[in-house]
């Protein structure tokens, strides 16, 4: 019998080295320069409503958003910003606040200096900062105020509000060229140029590179990837990633993950946001959780213990393992705020909840702690594996609560400062 051919040795694939960008400090948060990729979100409250905006920023911060953007679109909103900042500080929340300005940002920042001082960063859209002969002066006004207050800016071009004068100029040049490109390619180039030309102008106005972040958001995955690849190739500014108008539900999650994931894999991106449309009255923090899960599943950061669970099949007609996986996942998420304080490093824990004997024991052995249920038509009798070895067998109606106790005892032993054990109820 012939011996099997020896496979060539290969390195395990991983992400490309991070694109080298200039570090920018946004409040107490470092962006770029090799710092961990930052999770960002945005409120959808009326910023003039101080109470509801404070509540939502606090909720986003608790969910793990490391920077939060708020709309500053009119005088009432600008006047509310310092009170929002103060309300958050009273709660012990120091998450950097970003002001999102369009059309009249120069006017609001000038007339409400307390707003300009309270924000940690200003977001400027070069497509609507001003029009015709007012564009340069109004852009310069914002940069002057940012310089005076020592605030960074994000220059954020957007496909839906692209600088039309620049786009028409590039379209005319393209039409006159010997080898014209299609209109979509020219529009992508306009996105890149809009960001880079504005950044160059900001530097000419005295803003240092370590206070500039760029973004160029579009709503189509392939366009987004192409634009950011070119932006990264042609500059070393810190970069914010986001698929604008990603959509609702699974469509929004899949589209944003595909676009941002490809760019992160190529080493592009210093801060990310999922621009998801929530269900009416839905949880805004879903976009934060999605950002965290993408970064964690790709291996860039760790936020919460990972729970691996099988999808179920004809061998797992019992719902026991589905209920157990759900309960363990929810328990971990709700416990994490306290665990972070008590058990440093617990976010690196791996837990497996498997449904049958085919792959269950093996997957459970690969996790730090795992449980493998027996599958179809059998009394729930589940071996538990700890650090790759079978430690015990759980059975009976209290199986889920018993497994929680095993998990918390393992966490206490491995990550606890004082040692000892606890029950799940504690």
User: How far apart, in Å, are the first and last alpha carbons?
Assistant: 60 Å
What is the overall shape?
globular
Count every helix, treating DSSP H or I runs of 4 or more residues as helices.
13
Q: List unreliable stretches of 5+ residues.
A: 419-426
Strand order of the largest sheet: 3-4-5-6-7-8-9-11
Query: Which class of secondary structure composition applies to the elements?
Result: alpha/beta
SSE topology:
Elements: E1 24-26, E2 29-31, E3 38-42, H1 50-63, E4 67-71, H2 75-90, E5 97-101, H3 105-111, H4 113-118, E6 121-124, H5 134-149, E7 153-158, H6 164-176, H7 183-204, E8 212-217, H8 221-233, E9 238-241, E10 247-248, H9 249-265, E11 271-272, E12 276-277, H10 286-297, E13 306-309, H11 320-342, E14 350-354, H12 360-366, E15 369-372, E16 381-386, E17 389-395, H13 399-415
Parallel strand pairs: 3-4, 3-11, 4-5, 5-6, 6-7, 7-8, 8-9, 9-11, 10-12, 13-14, 14-15
Antiparallel strand pairs: 1-2, 15-16, 16-17
Helix pairs in contact: 1-2, 3-5, 6-7, 7-8, 8-9
Q: If you had to describe this structure to a student in words, what would you say it looks like?
A:
This protein has 426 residues and is an alpha/beta fold. It is 43% helix and 17% strand. It is built from 13 helices and 17 strands. The strands form 4 sheets. The protein has an 8-stranded parallel barrel with strand order 3-4-5-6-7-8-9-11, surrounded by 5 helices. A 5-stranded mixed β-sheet has the order 13-14-15-16-17, with helices on both faces. A two-stranded antiparallel ribbon has the order 1-2. Strand 14 (350-354), helix 12 and strand 15 (369-372) form a beta-alpha-beta unit. The relative contact order is 0.09.
